[in-house]
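Hi R.,

Here are the chain sequences for the assembly we discussed:
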Amino acid sequence: MKPAPFVYHRARDAVGATRLLAELGDESKVIAGGQSLVAMMNFRLARPRHLVDVGGLRELDYLRTGPDGALRVGALTTHHTVETASDERLGSGFAVLRAAMEWVGHLPIRTRGTVGGSIAHADATAEWCLLAVALDAEMVALGPGGERRIPAADFFQGYYTSALDPDELLVEVVFPRPARYAALTEFAERRGDFATVSTVVALDLRDGAVHGGRVALGGVAPLPVRSPEAEAVLARGGPAGPELFTACAGAAAAAAGPPDGVSGDGDYRAALIRELVRRACEEAVSR
Amino acid sequence: MTDTAPRERQLITLDVNGERHELLIEPRRTLVDALRHDLLLTGTHVGCEHGICGACTVLVDGAPARACLMFAAQAEGARIRTVESLAEDGELSDLQRAFTEHHGLQCGFCTPGFLMLAEGFLAERPAATKEEIREVVASNLCRCTGYQTIVEAIDDCAARRRKET
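And here is the predicted structure of the full complex:
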């Protein structure tokens, strides 16, 4: 279908974008790569009266590493830029981000879709949302009153709902600590499709032993969630191997209580969680 | 239902296949519709209009992109290439000939999308393996060929280009 009419505004800079958003009110919407929004507009699931295009703000397209070990990702960095980033650009300990990109749609989606757009869209099955929750990312939002930083734990609030105010622009995503032993894996009915279940595991691995870690799940709740039960298994620690990983995966599956959904009933999802968490643990170790 | 936004037109400039065009269009005009209806470049096809089928794939600054998931206004300032740019003086390009030789098409509806996908992908990864080509080809839909011949056409074209350089 064709989208409903709207008025197009092109932002000259990030501050200008927030000013436009404040002026235009809540019938306005930011468009970056548009890979989710334009599809929704074509279906008329979304019909904003005003679009504020931030796609031209090249100053928000960057990967910055700092002495603090953090990786700062500009909101307009595309998935494909991350996918093709060198070790040097990505910094040590963030290879998980690059490897995860193969799961984001397909190449022609990844060349246009942006990190910030994906996170602001807040799809519970989106890879960036899951990575943000698993790796404790902070979202930097620019509004009329200046910048504020929102931890991932507070940012995602439900189906396609984030903590961003209508006049705020997501400008940067900060991954505070390297996650050397981390992996994302997922299952979708078709390659490149929305995940039925997805998971990120990040292990604290030293001398072949696990000393804790984080497990996040997508597709099991209206927002990406961590699994305290699976993390408790990792916190007890032990040699990095099948025994620990099977226990961790079992705890995640038992606790998630996945709802019956369009793609698969609860038992099926539990089986997927068990298998995917185990695989993610093994992949995390092999990095 | 609330009243809709005013249907104003706006003047934009598009750089398509090396030529500059001025268009007076509604902002809701997608890039693929602007190419087909305003510039009469009907080589790019429209399928699903929500980014699944890939029939509308074009190159935006050299990278394959869905022309149905972009508004034409967003493409201002970018270099757009469509399937019409492949042949030179009526002579099919090496990629197009490879599709013919390997029977990489039957009805041809999806072909412009596959060609531009492959053109953009091989420019970035001339040494792509067959496995990588299969992975990339998964982004577009074809209901005739079963994909195998498309993969073979792209792989053969890549191999010949490598031999030439």
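Residues 62-175 of chain A form a domain with the Uridine Diphospho-n-acetylenolpyruvylglucosamine Reductase; domain 3 fold (CATH 3.30.465.10). The interface with chain B takes residues 1-8, 10, 31, 34-35, 38-39, 41-43, 47, 49-51, 53, 55-56, 80, 84, 102, 105-109, 111-112, 191-192 of chain A (CB under 8 Å).

Let me know if anything looks off.

Best,
T.
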